[in-house]
Amino acid sequence: MPSHRVNLLSGTLYALAAGLIWGGVFVAPLLLPQYPPALLSFGRYLAFGVVALPLAWLDRKRLLGFQRADWVAALKLAAVGNLAYYLLLSGAIQHSGAPLPTMLIGTLPVVIALFANRRNHQRDGRVRWRQMLPGMALIGAGVLLVNQAELAQLRAVRHFTATGLQSYVTGAVLALGAVACWTWYPLRNADWLRDHPGRSPTTWATAQGLATLPLALLGYAGWWAWAAVSGSGFSMPLGPEPLRFGVIMVGMGLLASWLGTLLWNEASQRLPTTLAGPLIVFETLSALAYTWVLRGHWPPASVMLGVALLVAGVAWAMARRPQAVVTGLPVGKHLP
After folding, report:
1. Could you tell me which residues come within 8 angstroms of residue 296 by beta carbon, excluding any fewer than 6 positions away?
2. How far apart are CA 275 and CA 5, in angstroms?
3. How confident is the model at residue 150 (pLDDT cuts 50, 70, 90)?
4. How distant, in Å, are the alpha carbons of 173, 244, 274 from that of 47?
5. How many other C-beta atoms are found inside a 10 Å radius of the C-beta of residue 262?
6. CB atoms within 10 A of CB 245
7. Could you tell me the residue ranges of all domains in the chain?
8. Residue 125 phi/psi, 5° resolution?
9. Which of 26, 132, 135, 213 could be stapled to 287 by a disulfide with Cβ–Cβ 3.0 to 4.6 Å?
């Protein structure tokens, strides 16, 4: 089998595995509804950093080869793609429920592909814009269908009061912030991985965990101090359900953060970003499935149709191979 087909297959499988793991982070805020989003974000990435410590010791030889610029890149990725992203996402889920943020995050395949197609075309090739349009339209229609179903449920459950609408809109705004963070993250993460083809994706995942640790420690301590000064009454350091909180945070730190990052790094090293971006749909579909399992019943037909359109849109995008670019013009040669 040609090497580019091997890369396509293995990269897709790595992205699928990452999506199956990452889908679980959408459920955590629903399992811990009394915990503020800041504590969920800082707790998850504090666990990520702690998990990275023994892994870093085992991988110390390769980590010692990192330069200052590598650690700066890891710190930026940790701040934006880890802490800021999950802080915004947790807040969005607690304000509006999981499906709306899930489906807004579901636009990432299109958003990342658009930016990658314009930004990285000299390195990764370009998909003609008219070839991308049908896929984007399908994904957009899927997002609208699912959100329409969620608005109907909001009317039924909250009678669409001003408070309910305000909470829903707040959740949508926070989710859009999360989309912005995770549009920037995979593009910059792919830059580093593609610029360092000899570096291990495992080592890079561990480096991001180490970079996350001091940020998460500062954030956790800062929130603890704020809770004490404001008299919020929240039981620190582990909240009202310390065992459940600890188990979920460690699980997310090890699986969603370290292992998920490792798997995504493997996919990013094998695939052009215009192809890797659409595969984030696996996270969206996993999150939707886990959320509806938690609700204990099947989603309505409109949600199922929206999911089908989303899958069809991504399938269309994956079928459009990037073409090499010479002096800014596609020349018809497919990239490996």
Report:
1. none
2. 13
3. low
4. 27, 14, 32
5. 23
6. 21
7. 3-334
8. 90, 175
9. 26
